[in-house]
Design brief:
CATH class of the largest domain: Mainly Alpha
Number of helices: 29
Number of strands: 12
Shape: elongated
Oligomer: single chain
Strand content: 5-15%
CATH superfamily of the largest domain: Rhodopsin 7-helix transmembrane proteins
CATH architecture of the largest domain: Up-down Bundle
Structural class: alpha+beta
Length: about 675
């Protein structure tokens, strides 16, 4: 081992000792850990160079240890920048997710390129050991730009921090670190880059040794100004001087002994103006001095009392005041410690919150609908005047009470059930119709209940919006009764019309009722709307009303009709339409009657309509009409039976009869056991 190897070994031990010392002093300190990581990179660099500068090893071994040293020389600038950010208290920057990848990915890339042989391309044996030959590529220049820029950024942060900080010790620490780093940067750049890289003068690479001045600067800051070492006294002094709350120390007489910077800032006084003065200089409260002394003698504390703090200018500031006795070694009272917290901002915030609540309440009270907010336990947290007026109870007597306390048991249980469904599902429950008992009787509400979530997305209750629909329900009930009466009248009229048709054509008595049964069943099985089902029912009951206009002898003729007679029969659809078209059924009854003999292939009558141009209701009626007619007796033939009728619609499905209506009709008879009544 030559003298250079011994030098690197000594430097390695020095860095290692510093590293252990820092972690032993305070392993939890982020500043200590960052500095320790910096020294670890330098220690690894020195350790590897013990072997690189040993001319007794092979070129391959020298290459291996030079690659190992790259872990140190490629990363020390990143660790220094990290240390600088922590030392200069750049907390916001350190909290950003991108900062650590930006700091530590570049050294990893350069370590990788070194191991791949892209930074140093060869090793030359010198009298002092092995010398690495740099590649001179863009990667080589990139490395030096990286380490110079990171070091310069760290230097700028430290210099700027030294200029801005008001703490004398911090200023001196920053100054020492800046000077030591700057010297190392100049010396290292000169020897490692300019002289070696440009081949001006060939000397051993001693970057790890050059950084000793850097390390010595930090050691000096540790020894002289306690950098990264916290003593109890220093910690206490630092806490007192930097704490945001005012701290006042009183003697046994209640006079001021010392105050911190926050007290001077809050009061506007200087230290000399306060020393020896009574604590009453700060407070208007009557007999506060004696109260403090009596409490201290009894070893009782004052916790979070709201006082008014008087400044030098006479301004009164709202504060929270706490105090406790200081005891001497003998257990006697030595003085009193007072903590004063300025709550001006809190009071302003409370006032703003109160004003906002008042404004919100005013808005809620102006809304004619009922509005309320309940917690998950069913307690009313906020309600508007509309609800209070409905219950004839003041708002203050509703807030804090549960649903069960304000409404009858069954009513409250239903309300709570709806509340819980909205809370558990996390979804709004809308258009709930609920009874609402008031001193004036039961009212009916339509309510929307919406889960309320806090900032974290946790459901904390429900917001309800309710409209009184009592009068609307009365109107709807009256309308429903009127509708039922009208429907009853219409049904009677339809029955009358059906009876007239049967009287005209007694041989087909009951035909229309049976067609109505089947057509209605098909419509329901197709899941048509209630309106369409009702329209089909009515149209089926009077679909042959047009036969009123035909001669009785044709309708009751016991033999098959002639072509002329059949052409007259075909007129009954048009005659039926003409009779019904002026009646407002709320359904297209007249059109259904007109089209019930139309066929999908256009062979029907009276207008030879095809496919979808025929109303679906008419297509359904057409299927039901054929099935009932074929299965029943006629004057000119006996009943053919239901099987023959089903065979007919099956063979002509899609030609003469609607496919969907046919399929459903077959299903009704074959699977669901449909029978005519």
């Amino acid at each position: 081992m030559n003298i250079l190897s011994f030098l690197h070994f000594f430097v390695f031990l020095f860095y290692s000792c510093l590293l252990i010392f820092l972690l032993w002093k305070d392993p939890k300190s982020l500043l200590n850990r960052a500095c320790a990581a910096f020294f670890a990179s330098l220690a690894l660099w020195s350790f590897a160079y013990i072997f690189v500068h040993n001319f007794n090893i092979s070129k391959d071994t020298a290459r291996l240890f030079d690659n190992i040293s790259s872990i140190g020389w490629a990363s020390f600038a990143s660790f220094f920048l990290w240390f600088s950010l922590i030392f200069t208290e750049k907390k916001k920057i350190l909290k950003t997710k991108i900062i650590y990848p930006l700091i530590f990915i570049p050294p990893l890339l350069f370590i990788y390129t070194q191991w791949e042989g892209l930074l140093t391309v060869d090793y030359i044996k010198r009298p002092w050991g092995w010398e690495a030959a740099w590649s001179g590529s863009i990667l080589w220049y990139s490395y030096f730009i990286y380490y110079l820029s990171f070091t310069v950024i760290g230097l700028y942060l430290i210099l700027n921090f030294r200029r801005k900080t008001k703490e004398p010790i911090k200023k001196k620490q920053a100054g020492i670190i800046f000077v030591a780093t700057f010297i190392t940067l100049i010396l290292g750049t000169l020897t490692e880059v300019i002289l070696s890289g440009l081949h001006i003068y060939s000397i051993p690479l001693l970057g790890d040794v050059n950084t000793l001045s850097w390390a010595f600067g930090i050691v000096f800051a540790i020894a002289k100004y306690k950098l990264m070492i916290i003593t109890p006294a220093a910690a206490a002094e630092n806490i007192i001087s930097t704490m945001a709350d005012s701290l006042i120390l009183l003697d046994r007489e209640g006079n001021i002994v010392n105050v911190n910077k926050a007290t001077l800032y809050l009061s506007g006084y200087g230290n000399s103006e306060l020393e020896g003065k009574s604590v009453e200089i700060f407070f208007r409260e009557k007999d506060i001095k004696n109260t403090l002394l009596n409490k201290a003698i009894k070893r009782e504390s004052i916790r979070n009392y709201e006082f008014s703090f008087k400044t030098k200018t006479g301004e009164n500031i709202p504060v929270i005041f706490s105090s406790s006795a200081m005891m001497d070694e003998a257990g006697g009272m030595a003085g009193i410690v007072c903590i004063v917290k300025d709550i001006t901002e809190r009071k302003l915030a409370e006032e703003n919150v109160k004003n906002a609540k008042d404004e919100l309440q005013m808005i809620l009270d102006s809304v004619p609908a009922i509005i309320f907010y309940k917690d998950i336990e069913g307690r009313f947290i906020r309600v508007n005047k509309t609800l209070a007026n409905s219950l004839q109870v003041p708002i203050k007597d509703i807030v804090g009470k549960t649903t069960e306390a304000l409404f009858p048991k069954e009513e409250a249980e239903n309300m709570r059930k709806d509340d819980q469904e909205a809370i558990l599902s996390g979804k709004a429950k809308r258009d709930i119709i609920e009874p609402f008992t008031t001193p004036d009787g039961i009212r009916w509400l339509i309510i929307d209940k919406i889960p309320y979530k806090d900032k974290k997305g946790k459901i904390t209750g429900i917001i309800g919006f309710a409209k009184d629909i009592t009068e609307q329900r009365k109107s709807e009930e009256e309308l429903r009764q009127s509708y039922q009466q009208l429907k009853k009248t219409m049904d009677a009229a339809i029955d009358t019309m059906s009876s007239i048709i049967e009287a005209k054509d007694p041989y087909t008595a009951g035909h229309q009722q049976r067609v109505s049964q089947l057509a209605t069943a098909i419509a329901k099985e197709l899941h048509l709307s209630q309106d369409k089902v009702e329209g089909i029912r009515i149209a089926s009951l009077i679909h042959d009303i047009g036969k009123i206009g035909l001669p009785t002898e044709i309708l009751s003729k016991p033999i098959r009709l002639s072509d002329i007679e059949f052409s007259l029969i075909k007129e009954h659809s048009q005659i039926g339409f003409n009779i019904l078209k002026s009646i407002d059924f709320s359904y297209p009854v007249a059109e259904i009657v007109l089209q019930h003999h139309e066929r999908p292939n256009g062979s029907g009558y009276p207008n030879h309509l095809k496919g979808d141009k025929v109303l679906l209701e008419a297509r359904i009626l057409g299927v039901a009409d054929v099935v009932e007619a074929m299965s029943s007796h006629r004057p000119y033939r006996p009943a053919l039976g239901i099987d023959k009728a089903l065979e007919e619609i099956t063979q002509n499905k899609g030609i003469l009869y609607d496919p969907k209506a046919v399929d459903v009709c077959l299903k009704l008879f074959k699977e669901k056991g449909f029978e005519f009544e």
